[in-house]
Amino acid sequence: MSQTTAHSTQTPEELDVVIVGAGYSGIHQLYHYRKQGYSVRILEAESDLGGAWWWTRYPGARVDSESPFYQLSIEEVWKDWVWTERFPCRDEVCEYYQHVERTLGIKKNIRFNSRVVSAKFNDTLNRWVITTKDGFVVHPRFFILAIGAASKPHTPPFADFQSFKGICIHTASWPEGLVTKGKRVAVIGTGASGVQVIQSIGPEVKHLTVFQRTPNYALAMQQQKLDKEIQQKSKRLFPDMFRRCRQTPNGFSFDRYPKSLHATTPEERLLFFEDLWTAGGWRFVTNNYMDIFSDQAVNDEAYFFWRNKICERVHDPVMQEKLAPTSPPYPFGSKRPSLEINYYDVFNQPNVDLVDLTQCEISRFTPSGIQTADGVEHTFDIVVLATGFHTFTGPYTDLKVQAADGTDILEKWANGVYSYLGMTVHGFPNFFYMYGPQSPGACNGPTCSEVQSDWIVGCVSHAMKQCFTRIEATREAEIEYRRLILELNARSLSRSTSEPTNFKGDLAQYGRLCLEVTDDGYRGFVFSSQVESRALL
Ligand code: NAP
């Protein structure tokens, strides 16, 4: 396997596999191809390992998946690693990635500072032609996109946005050393990043105004320090635990409670809800009654338990109504809740306001702040955009993926996304993506990415062993898969009225579907060798 770095003037390297992205998904892929002796390289836009965790530096950035589930299931890696907290902070996750390097020595197979700008399939070579921003070109047989869903920050088109003279930052590019203490700060957005920034800077800023469009049904994190010895002892169970995570709806080892809420007494459900709340983290959603997502009455009961918990913490009835409305604005758990430590307490501070954007929109930015529809001008030193990312097909706007005839994948998806298994696309042979359009969404990231990664490795290895030079999903297979995506969306309480972005079934169901496809001789795929590839397709 070549370890050298090629330059544009040299003949492009011909590798078996090129992976884009050095987060969990990309590293898992690299590890398995290398183990099987394939030539493989990761191209990573940043200067170190960690994917989104590398560049996520806003104050309070922390994992929302509890230990020990948020890690690779590779034994060489987990056997010598212990976490200090149940929900690790960003720096600890980055330290974990360095442990991955010390254990596996993967950096030698990674080209850092290599932002891929285009990837085009070459029909004659049956290889991808991948080009980075600095002109590096490589020709792999297989091209794997492992860049996650949150790679392109979303800045809403606010009127007169450029006129603001203070500091305006997106949570995705928090500058090192930015001081918020004693400043007048705005945070726009109350998703995962917004909640963490607000609870982190809230206690120390001079004044904080939160601009909220949709309330976050944030759950009590119940953070804990972890004991090293207890963790070491529990490791004998890790192989079973990692297997179990794949058999549950959300990629943790725990499952929904196998009982309907309707089969319980009010006392029983109150005590059950209290237990889940005390257990903390996602448990109030993931371990709740089996009908929490299929029965609106059950869902409402969970909502009102949650609402009471929040109202016990937030003193002002007006603020209570903004953060936890009497009438649920959307079904409980249908939008990703955040985990919080002191988020709701911040809103009891006299120096913290919340502008409900459903009642009073942002009209425009001004040189000194933000003007709202009621004519009030709010003045700030710093505006934080916690407005998320262009998810779904967003990452494909900067990284152009093209079929052999030049068709861009976004052109193909202009009238709706068609993929097979949320991993492959007809017309784009030898290409696999992970954690992208039509992949599973609401689950523990590492479990989901390993389910997909194992399947892709199996498929690529099958092709390599049989000397096939080309794999392609059929059009019929992706039409059938899209039908399933729409059906699952229609049945879900979290159904979107626009195009569903994810596979809205359980992760376990998704895993079974992928295995069925394999067991059925890679149903829905055409494998071919170089000479016959055109004829077969
Ligand atoms: P996000 O969850 O998509 O939240 C974006 C927020 O910005 C939402 O509250 C959204 O409101 C609001 N917003 C968007 N456009 C707006 C506009 N024009 N005006 C006002 N508000 C607007 O984004 P994120 O918090 O950056 O998180 C992105 C993803 O990263 C998460 O889903 C999660 O998977 C991951 N993440 C994970 C962690 C963790 O594990 N701890 C931490 C951070 C991020 P609406 O709800 O009304 O759209």
From TrEMBL:
The answer, when asked if Secreted is one of the entry's keywords, is no
Which cofactors, if any, are listed as required?
FAD
GO molecular function terms listed in the Swiss-Prot or TrEMBL record: flavin adenine dinucleotide binding; N,N-dimethylaniline monooxygenase activity; NADP binding
Pfam families for the chain:
FMO-like (PF00743)
- Entries under SUPFAM superfamilies matching the protein: FAD/NAD(P)-binding domain
Superkingdom field: Eukaryota
> What keywords is this UniProt entry annotated with?
FAD, Flavoprotein, Monooxygenase, NADP, Oxidoreductase
Q: Which InterPro entries match?
A: FAD-binding_Monooxygenases (IPR050775), FAD/NAD-bd_sf (IPR036188), Flavin_mOase-like (IPR020946)
What the record says about family reads: Belongs to the FAD-binding monooxygenase family.
Q: What is this protein called?
A: Cyclohexanone monooxygenase
Species assigned in the record: Lentinula edodes
